[in-house]
Amino acid sequence: MDTSTRAREEEKSIVLGDWIEALDELGIDTTKALKEEHGLLDQQRTLHQHYLRFRDDQSKGLTAAATNVMKTAGDYDSFASTLATAAIATDTSIIDRAQQIAALARESAAQSAFNHFRRRGEGTYDIIRGVFEETRDAIIRDGGNVPDGVVDLDSAARAGVESEWLRLEALVERWDSILQLIESWYLNGVFATDGRNLENYNAWMFVFADYQQAIDTYGVGILATVRQVINCETRLLTITEVDELESTKAKKATPDEQRAAHWRQRQADDEAAAILRAEWEAQGISPRLAAASAKRAR
Q: Is the Cβ–Cβ distance between 15 and 184 less than 8 Å?
């Protein structure tokens, strides 16, 4: 994992906001799943709005301040409070200190929201478990319905599985978003690592029990991901389970071995695609007609 992306203190609310946005995009109702965090972030926004109003009120000058004080003549407490607030307008050092205090209050609310999320620990898996398993199962289902030789949308159309391919593209994009979240949670201390060196881990280890098979899986475009999800014992894993599986000890291919494996897989995909084209030609169906037929069937 690239630990250089770890959030700095002043970025905590931004990072949490990104996580919430990503979870919302995955179809998770974070207003319910992360109710406390939402409340603290709302508090942060409210504090900011209050400060902006306070700053604007002080910028109107002494005449406007005096007018406000005049309106409080009937009540001493209101008079004293308004007078004290108006007096701040004559002292820029107090204005500066007020800005610092307001900024610290907003930062405290943001930090509290971030800390609350981090305290969820591995319970955070429960938030994404449903969408994770749904995405995994859908990739296995649709990926299993794609014939050998289908490597892109054009070949999918010719094979009559264009709709399955389009769903696969969306599913793989969602899958990548889930993995990015898991990696970010580890990097930013949501999951306890107990002093482990995160540079020895990567996001695949936390979703593929057969990590060796995952790193040995190649393919064109989204096919590699589909093959991984189908063949690599896909499930959510804690870092303790990753250690028990000894995924960090998996043998990684050399660059030359990787290129050779990519070439072999590409050759196999090309041969399967050629067989698929021959089947269409044997039936007297042109690629253009096949694509048109697939579109009419959608």
A: yes
